[in-house]
Amino acid sequence: MLLRWWRRLTAMRTAIILLFLLALAAVPGSLLPQRSLSRNAVTRYFADHPDLAPVLDRLYLFDVFSSPWFAAVYLLLFISLIGCVIPRALEHFRALRTPPPPAPRNLLRLPDSGRLDSPLAPAPALDAVEEELRVRRFRVVRRETARGPELSAEKGYLKETGNLLFHLSLLALLLGLAGGKLWGYEGSILVTEGQGFCNTFQQYDTYSSGPLVDSDDLSSLCVDLDQFRAEYEENLTASSFTADIRYGEPNGEDRATTIGVNDPLRIDGDRVYVTGHGFTPCFTVQIPGGSSFDDVCAPFLPTDQTTLASEGALKLPDLGAGQDDQLAIEGFFAPTGLMQGGLLTSIDPRPLAPQVAIIAYQGYLGLDSGLPQSVYSLDATQIERGRLTEVGAANLSVGETLDLPDGTQVTFSGYKEFAALQYSHDPGQLWVLGSAIALLAGLLGLLLLRRERVFARAEAAADGGGTVLSLASLTRGGGESRPRFTALSDDLRDALATAASRTAPDPEVPSRD
Amino acid sequence: MTESALAELSDSLFSVSVALYSVALVAFCAQLAFGRRTERTREVVGASASASGGVLLDDAPQAAPRPAGGTDQGNRWGAIAIGVTALGALAHTGVLVTRGMAVDRLPWGNMYEFATAVVLVAVVAYTGLALRTPNLRHIGVFVLGPVVLALVAIGLGLYTEAAPVVAALRSYWLAIHVSAAILGFGVFMVSGIASVLYLVRSRPGADAGTGFVSRLPSADVLDRLAHRTAVFGFPIWTFAVIAGAIWAEAAWGRFWGWDPKETWSFVAWVVYAAYLHARTTAGWRGRPAAWVNVVGLAVMIFNLTFVNLVSTGLHSYADVG
Ligand code: HEM
């Protein structure tokens, strides 16, 4: 019973069905938004389809590639794969060390077969055939049988080796992927010029980590961003992003380098990438009769990648006064601003004429309420509840100031650039690369090579002069055997003729009758 | 020549190649109309029956007395058609070369250029095969037909002005990954068309009658053409996917993230693997396997069109102008 199920699972037919299931299972992952790609898209989908979304969610349709049913399909496929590859590997290993099998009884019944006549005696005739086959890299054995001397030859063992290599590499690749998922992690952070971060989960804006990652085991590395540069073509296509960074152990020596698109920092298997960029406007806030906060900055998130129009918020909870005396600025940043119908827009991603459109609020920000808040926007419920009230709005160029009713002055003091950096650790990566290369090598062997057996039997010709050779070949995989067999027998005929002319120096003389 | 003149030349050559392919299409039609029915005489089995090399895909070109009427005329049309197709392919190559010179980079940085190159590969692959195997000229209509349709759709729907590409595409991996994808896709296109024709040809009763179906090469030949091209395309596609993963590791920070493009490339890969298996599995040989191959091509086309035009992913560089 069990055995029957095992047989069925490891049959090629099952493999085809499972391959199809796998392809089918991947489809919803590309048609529905996935949490692994964009949490926002999933949230939006929930908002747009409030009835459908929870049902889909219960079916793991927003996490297709980590869902139990997706795992079930590929695990079944891989069990099936193991089940068919291991026995084949053992058989192949045996086959490598056993000589080619004896020739079938009736050679001429094979589809690719024929006769050759030679004036040579049976043994030298087979010698000539053997030599020709060895030149073609066949493995050859000779046997004496009741029906006369015969020869079996085989080549193309590498095809089977390629087949096994290919299928085993698939397994290895999956193991590498799994290892990377279990022990890998990834963190992202926006870093403004002049600032930096260290590789700990607390510092990242967002991070994800495999279940077996111990947060104490993160490699200790700190990265500081000195300068970010974006370059553009005339038509404003971005041509390069580069970040000058310094990196090193927290208390060790710094090393400087430049990273950019397609060119991450690689250290000990970890990588640091530039994944995006934007602007960080800075403000100076002067409290009436009190202190001044110089150049406080907050990164604004680009809302339009082509013009880098950005939105964000600057929150100042600690102005020194009471809890209800907090200040916040929410606004819009345009690297190259243009007023259109009273609204500030951006027309160029380069900071040619930076401007901000800001609204200032005073009151209670609700930062310590325990609920998490986005750092890029104000908590709208605080505004609705009247805890935070609008106290002024203005469009400012660098150096211009907004005066608030209580005498506070907010000056747009300048801007810096920020880089979105990503720190990645994937211990399975090299393993996966190796498997992929082995997979490709195996595939080439499997598809391009042919497994071929050739049999020959030599019988004395009926009239007593010379030999009749029966010749046959068996080809497995890879296309048309007939023309190849024809070519082979033509060559063998030539080889026999040459051998005959060597032994009989004057073959033109007809034998006496 | 200035860059804008080169870009204009590229656009004109596009029209020229569509025109040439259309002429070839008509010639192929004429061949199909006036040509002889393909012979179904089998070779005599035996070592001495020699089939010359290079006609591996042919039925039995030698022997078989030609039925009277139309034969030579049909062959002449076939030769003309192949000649015009080759001219078209030359102009088509010119489209890409001048485009590449105009923008000073490889001419496959957006969907227009990519699709144009894929169709070129399909035409070149088919022309090469048809030159070696005259019998395959009988399917020229069914290759050139889709080619002309595809080019018109590309010209009308995907056309993008010659322009530089974004930073992420400025990498030698563009040459490696995208070239492999174009090659694989173009070859799969020929393979898929062969399988469609096989499905038509192998329908019960297709041998009877005198319609165009009976003029197609035999089911066997079409099946072998489909399989051989798929076998050629599959490792190339595998390489394209692997190279894409290597590039993604450098450009996007992970080698595989189930981005829609990645997902559909994987789906296509799995479907083609299933086709190769089906071809050697009892119960799947023949028509079921051919259907799998057709599904494979459908997935490739879906991946190019729907995934680029409708879904959003990291591959959305290919913005359509
Ligand atoms: C139970 C699982 C599997 C079994 C039993 C199996 C078995 C085989 C066998 C016997 C061959 C040789 C075909 C021939 O005779 O030439 C083969 C070839 C191949 N296998 Fe698998 N396989 C399995 C899973 C897979 C998977 C999961 C993939 C990839 C997604 C795959 C991809 C291939 C490819 C591309 C070939 C080459 C086909 C050809 O020779 O034309 N196999 N497999």
TrEMBL record, chain B:
Keywords: Cytochrome c-type biogenesis, Membrane, Transmembrane, Transmembrane helix. The keyword Transmembrane helix applies. It is found in: Membrane. It comes from Blastococcus saxobsidens. Residues 108-315 form the Cytochrome c assembly protein domain. Its main location: membrane. NCBIfam families: cytochr_II_ccsB. The lineage of its organism: Bacteria, Bacillati, Actinomycetota, Actinomycetes, Geodermatophilales. GO terms for cellular component: plasma membrane. One of its GO terms (molecular function) is heme binding. It is a multi-pass membrane protein. The chain crosses the membrane at residues 12-34, 77-97, 109-129, 141-160, 172-200, 230-248, 263-278, 290-311. GO terms for biological process: cytochrome complex assembly. This is C-type cytochrome biogenesis protein CcsB.
